[in-house]
Write a structure and sequence with these properties.
It is built from 2 helices and 8 strands, in the order αββββββββα. With about 160 residues, the chain is an alpha+beta fold. The protein has one domain. β5 and β6 form a beta hairpin. The radius of gyration is 15 Å and the shape is globular. The mean pLDDT is about 80.
């Protein structure tokens, strides 16, 4: 994917994201490549439609210590062949802090796959606790701001 195409995709989402509810992750309930997610420590949102074939999903991994917790945000484009990952924003308090993987300038076909062998960028350090709801919603707001997704009315404002 070329940078210009990625930039254009970022600007096309027309539906605002107005809610974000996490529920236990069950294997096989999410589209590929997330269909293997599951377990007692993982919580996921539904796949939210943000317009023009773009979908977002958020994953929260809980744990007994801050260092074992994490947050993930993923933006996909729905295609005829499956879900094409566009970006993945990760937050790990134990290492790397806030960082993003981007599907651009690679020749690898990533439909129904994770972002492997793609560019990774470190972002501004933030101090979040994934087990605190306000911090999870702050992460979602950061994701939406970074990737051009409008926030609508609801608990996220």
């Amino acid at each position: 994917m070329e940078r210009k195409h990625l930039y254009k995709l970022k600007r096309t989402g027309k539906k605002p994201l107005s809610e974000c509810h996490f529920a236990p992750a069950k294997k096989g309930k999410l589209p590929k490549p997330l269909d293997r997610l599951g377990g007692p420590r993982l919580k996921v949102t539904p796949v939210y439609d943000v317009g023009d074939g773009l979908k977002v999903i958020f994953v929260w991994k809980t744990g007994p210590y801050l260092e074992t917790r994490s947050l993930y945000g993923r933006l996909f484009q729905e295609t005829e062949r499956g879900m094409l990952p566009i970006v993945r924003l990760d937050y790990h308090p134990s290492h790397k802090n806030l960082h993003v993987k981007v599907n651009c300038e690679t020749e690898i076909d990533l439909v129904n796959r994770d972002l492997v062998k793609t560019k990774e960028f470190s972002l501004t350090n933030v101090a979040l606790d994934p087990d605190i709801e306000e911090d999870r919603l702050h992460f979602v707001a950061i994701f939406c701001e970074r990737f051009g997704i409008r926030l609508g009315n609801g608990e996220l404002l």
